[in-house]
Amino acid sequence: MAADRSRPLFLGLLPLPERQAITGALRTETTGGLVLLAAAVVALVWANSPWSGTYEQIRNVHFGIPALGLDLSVGHWTADGLLAIFFLVAGIELKRELVTGELRTPATAALPIIAAVCGMAAPALLYAVTATAGGGSLDGWAVPMATDIAFALAVLAVLSTHLPAALRAFLLTLAVVDDLGAILIIAVFFTSDLNYWALAGAFTGLVVFYLLQRLRVRGWWWYVPLGTAIWALMYNGGIHATVAGVAMGLILRTTRDQGEEASPASRVAHLMHPLSAGIAVPLFALFAAGVSISGAALGEVFTSPEPLGVVIGLLLGKTLGIFAGTYLAARFTRARLNPDLAWADVLGLSVLAGIGFTVALLIGELAFPGTAVGEHVKAAVLVGSLIAATLASLLLRRRNTIYRRLCEEENLDQDADGIPDIYQRSGPSRTAPVGRQNGQSG
């Protein structure tokens, strides 16, 4: 119907440049997710083996420069140091989304932002209700709020699902907004005693970083020492050092100047993404996921209020929040769902978003540092993520025949010109995405 065609489309065909950018990013994330899964398995086996004492000894080994306030354990170096690389890449991806991606206009940003916010608020609320009802601590309210995109994509890779690019892009955008919410929560709610001189130094370093970008200064010898100094000052300032990574990622320029093959943000992401996905995040998982999985420990997950709140938040909170937020936002914006897809596909993604591994473990460590409750909460993150992955697998596999057909159509290039044929059809595409119809360019 003409009236229906005039309404914006949700989960339609992505513009070709955006599809290519997302495909490249997700390919690296998927590979990193498989390494992440392997690291988590190694951590669990090691921590529950006769050599568990060795695991604890290595995790607690301290090294660094005490005079600079950087005498940290191996576990803290992976959480405060290596994860700064992960959040640097997350900051770059957020900047790309804001400048050229799904978040650049209100029309395209409304659905994923509303879905992500609801997907963070509902888990926090359900955790608070569960913890309060059981007489537990509210300190872990933020643990079930984040989605681990690498872990989620690894699950899709293991299942050999063929999700269309629009569904993968929607999942990626949800995770990007999640990461922003997580870093804001870490910065605001999980700060120690503030050292204002160190924070002033970190802020000054960020200003210099910004000026170097504005002046088009190139050369790693400028940025690596400056970035390291900003990170160290942020850590000593009492704000979690990963905030420095996000800040620098947001400052990096994402647009190309005339004559440039790639923007600074693209170059940095190209260099750092494999390091983040292949080394930083897996090493963090190796020293964060090593928790006891004995019968007694698993019993605590489902009987103690804090870990039970995390499991309920990841499974029910994420699913209800994202699905309801997406559905209501679509109704509010009068967006019509891609006719090739169904709301069951959004439900499957909502359940998959309950995989909250990396950032959830980090926030769990910050909320319950060095306590038995903290170990139980980490076990709850693993259990909740595993259940979410299993349920999402069942939901998405049921629709995989449809996904395979859509993927083949998206990638078909019969004339071998490097451009999928679906982008060369004459007339307006019935799968143009929200905000890209009626003459709006991509």
Short description:
This protein is mainly α and 442 residues long. 68% of the residues lie in helices and 3% in strands.
Labels describing this entry:
Na+/H+ antiporter like fold, 17 helices, 68% helix, two-stranded antiparallel ribbon, 442 residues
Percent helix, as a range, is 55-70%
Counted up, domains total 1
Distance between the termini: 25 Å
CATH architecture: Up-down Bundle
Number of strands: 4
Helix-strand sequence:
HEHHEEHHHHHHHHHHEHHHH
- CATH topology grouping: Na+/H+ antiporter like fold
- Rg, Å, rounded: 22 Å
- Report low-confidence residues grouped into runs of 5 or more: 426-442
Task: State the secondary-structure class.
Answer: mainly alpha
CATH superfamily: Na+/H+ antiporter like domain
What is the count of helical runs? 17
How confident is the prediction overall: mean pLDDT?
A: 84
Query: In what order do the strands lie side by side in the largest sheet?
Result: 1-4
Main sheet properties = 2 strands, parallel
Detailed description of the structure:
The structure is a single chain. The chain has helices at residues 2-5, 16-47, 52-59, 74-99, 106-133, 149-159, 165-189, 196-214, 220-236, 242-251, 264-288, 295-303, 305-333, 343-352, 358-367, 372-397, 400-411, and strands spanning 9-10, 62-65, 70-73, 336-337. It is mainly alpha-helical and 442 residues long. The protein has one domain: Up-down Bundle (Na+/H+ antiporter like fold). It has a two-stranded parallel sheet. A two-stranded antiparallel sheet has the order 2-3. Helix 4 (74-99) runs parallel beside helix 10 and helix 8 runs antiparallel to helix 9.
